[in-house]
Write a structure and sequence with these properties.
- The chain is α/β, with parallel strands linked by helices.
- It has a domain of 121 residues: GMP Synthetase, Chain A, domain 3 (2-Layer Sandwich), CATH 3.30.300.30.
- It has a seven-stranded mixed beta sheet, sandwiched between helices. The protein has a five-stranded parallel beta sheet with strand order 7-6-8-11-12, with helices on both faces. The protein has a four-stranded antiparallel beta sheet with strand order 21-22-24-25, with no helix packed on it.
- Strand 29, helix 17 and strand 30 form a beta-alpha-beta unit.
- The longest helix has 18 residues.
- The radius of gyration is 24 Å and the shape is globular.
- The two termini are 36 Å apart.
- The chain binds ligand 6R9.
- The site of ligand 6R9 has 22 residues, from helix 11, strand 20, strand 24 and strand 25.
- Its cofactor is Mg(2+).
- One of its GO terms (cellular component) is cytosol.
- Belongs to the ATP-dependent AMP-binding enzyme family.
């Protein structure tokens, strides 16, 4: 495979003196020193950090166990508690510091100190204990973005309960699958949620998901009263406020082994079923914390804001765990960037004096567009002088959006374009803002200690300047430990034999700049789409479509989209006749709604095209390459000699309008 890079970015932004002089890693020499330290004594490097940053109940003596590779174990004989590392340790030093500034959808603001958060977490943990939930149990958290979601996650961590957060935008069906796969014993949810001025149901999806069957493992449903809307109730349900009533606000943390699973988080892979990515306690927290220091250069006075929902890995590492472990003050925002208008983020940065702001390229692109039509929502309209660092995550940021974001920071703020994945636990390629020279569109260089590179399909290193597969050659503490219930899929997905079986395959294509070694990510090499920074498997959407009674066969591809990054285009063959006109429109609506119900609104195809068949090779393989070209409206000039039924292409050129 050879991937051509189209990006020839020549603009370079060196870190400003003011920033570097105060930064945790303040120069390229300092970066090199860390890099060399890791190179010379890899285990020693991570062991030093783990001793410096984490508070151990029982110190570890072994750093890395590779006996059962690729099921690596880090710090395995050590014991600690993640919640104690996020909360208890601050009680002596910063009890009255604000941990969370919560801003609701409607603009109401509530501050929570470290001490208050500690007590809330303890009290809720005591509630969970009274339901006989114990270390190792799996609990689904299905809550809107807010203080309760963080409290619920931290309370689970306090008791060694393995949480699995399901994003509030996922459907009943998705919940059902995750409950079954995780063998969850409880669900923590709320009656409803507020988003963009609307009140939406949440508990309903839990009821529907459980009603789909197979969820007998569920013993309790804890419901936070958020909206006060009417909900159905059964004897498994208990109100959050009733659960904590009269419970003590102290709760001894349960000490767990370093490798004890902290959480499962389901994410899309290249086959239909989402993967339950399993993370550890110690190694995971170590990297979440250390990246807060080195990537975000966090300082005691910073007002930090990561806009991600806790339903995604970014919300886990950079809302629930990293910022609390480091003792930061952070904004937690319930709403959406465009309500009441597209100036919401900038207005909030101005009002709360946010100094570090971390968001997704898709949000930036949508705000660029909005600001062009309504100047009152443009960042220039606000006082953003509190900002000192900007960050992005989730997908490649195009240089134009990068340059616009740079202006948001008044050309004063470094931008950290952080590349990482659910599976990596935290940043693996990113600028360190006091050291790295920034290049728009490039996530620049490996985080110190992460041995990341680009190789060919056999796992051989290739020269800089040539595109290939992004891999990580050594295990690292915050790496995925396994796919829950499916160790074979873990190996097949991430440690494939083709690459030798001992290097981690990220699933992205990448190229290193021939002179600087800077990385540019070229997108997924597998059948995974990135829609608004959210990972969606094409196979997942195809399975959902296939489950509809009208559908015989389908193929889903991504098409570049100016704001969302990629949009979903579905090619569908119906069991009946190929529909036309009004009938086609009706079926499109039905199928879009169907996918929304099966997976969630984010997975709804933007476009559906009907054919009598799909383009296939003589061996019966769907030619996705052709479908991608068709979706983009490109003429098919490439070789179609292996195509069994070329006439089909004409049908598939047309979208239902
Ligand atoms: C953290 C997160 C992971 C996939 C990843 C890649 C894409 C994430 C990126 C980026 C280019 C960046 N991705 N950050 N691509 N530049 N800075 O997003 O995790 O939801 O698991 O997605 O997202 O394709 O493989 P996750």
């Amino acid at each position: 495979m050879s991937i051509e890079s189209v990006l020839h970015e020549r603009r370079v932004f060196a870190p400003g003196k003011d920033f570097s002089s105060q930064a945790a890693v303040g120069s390229m020499e300092e970066y090199q020193r860390l890099h060399t330290e890791a190179l010379q004594d890899y285990e020693g490097f991570w062991a030093r950090l783990a001793r410096e940053l984490l508070i151990w109940h029982k110190p570890f003596t072994k750093t890395l166990n590779q006996d059962n590779a690729p099921f690596y174990k880090w710090f395995e004989d050590g014991e600690l508690n993640v919640s104690a590392n996020c909360l208890d340790k601050h009680l002596q030093t910063i009890p009255n510091k604000t941990a969370i500034i919560f801003e609701a959808d409607n603009g109401d603001v509530k501050n929570v100190t470290y001490k208050a958060l500690y007590h809330q977490v303890c009290q809720f943990a005591n509630g969970l204990k009274s339901l006989n939930l114990v270390k190792g149990d799996r609990v689904i958290i299905y809550l809107p973005m807010g203080i309760e979601a963080i409290v619920a996650m931290q309370a689970c961590a306090r008791l060694g309960i393995i949480h699995s957060v399901v994003f509030g935008g996922f459907s009943a069906k998705s919940l059902n699958e995750r409950i079954i796969d995780a063998g969850a014993v409880a669900v923590i949810t709320s009656d409803g949620q507020h988003r963009g001025g609307k009140t939406l149901p949440l508990k309903q999806a839990v009821d529907d998901g459980i009603a789909m069957g197979g969820c007998d493992s569920i013993r309790n449903i804890v419901v936070f009263k958020k909206t006060g809307q009417e909900i159905t109730w059964n004897d498994k349900c208990i109100w959050w406020h009733d659960l904590i009533a009269g419970k003590a606000d102290e709760c001894a943390p349960v000490m767990v082994e370093a490798e004890h699973p902290l959480f499962l988080l389901y994410t899309s892979g290249s086959t239909g079923k989402p993967k339950g990515v399993q993370h550890s306690s110690a190694g995971y927290l170590l990297h979440a914390m250390n990246t807060m220091r080195w990537t975000f250069d966090i300082k005691p006075d910073d007002i930090y804001w990561c806009t991600a929902d806790v339903g995604w890995i970014t919300g886990h590492s950079y809302v629930t765990y990293g910022p609390l472990a480091i003792g930061a003050t952070q904004i937690v925002f319930e709403g959406i960037p465009t309500f009441p208008n597209a100036g919401r983020f900038w207005e909030m940065i101005q009002r709360h004096k946010v100094s570090i702001f971390y968001t997704a390229p898709t949000a930036i692109r949508s705000l660029i567009k909005a600001g062009e039509t309504d100047f009152t929502t443009h960042p220039n309209h606000f006082d953003l002088s509190s900002l000192r660092l900007l960050g992005t995550v989730g997908e490649p940021i195009n240089p134009e959006a990068w340059m616009w974001y740079e202006q948001v920071g008044g050309s004063r703020c470094p931008i950290v374009d952080t590349f990482w994945q659910t599976e990596t636990g935290g940043h693996v390629i990113t600028p360190l803002p006091g050291a790295t020279k920034l290049v728009p569109g490039s996530c620049t260089l490996p985080f110190p200690g992460i041995d990341i590179d680009v190789v060919d399909e056999t796992g051989k290193e290739i020269p800089w300047g040539t595109g290939g597969l992004l891999v990580i050659k050594k295990p690292w503490p915050s790496m995925i430990r396994t796919i829950y219930n499916d160790p074979e899929r873990f190996i097949a997905s991430y440690y494939p034999a083709e690459l030798g079986g001992n290097i981690y395959l990220a699933g992205d294509g990448a190229v290193r700049d021939a002179t600087t070694g800077n990385f540019t990510i070229m997108g997924r090499i597998d059948d995974v789409l990135n829609v608004s920074g959210h990972r969606l498997g094409t196979m997942e959407i195809e399975s959902a479509l296939g489950a509809n009674h009208l559908v015989a066969e389908s193929a889903v591809v991504g098409r570049p989209h100016p704001i969302k990054g990629e949009s979903v285009v579905a090619y569908v063959v119906l069991k009946g006749k190929r529909p036309e006109g009004e009938e086609a429109k009706k079926i499109v609506t039905e199928l879009r709604e169907w996918v929304g119900k099966e997976i969630g609104p984010i997975a709804k195809p933007d476009e559906i095209r009907f054919g009598d068949n799909l383009p296939k090779t003589r061996s019966g393989k769907i030619m996705r390459r052709l479908l991608r070209s068709l979706a983009k409206g490109e003429e098919i000039s490439s070789d179609i000699s292996t195509l069994d039924n070329p006439a089909i292409l004409d049908q598939l050129k047309q979208a239902v309008s």
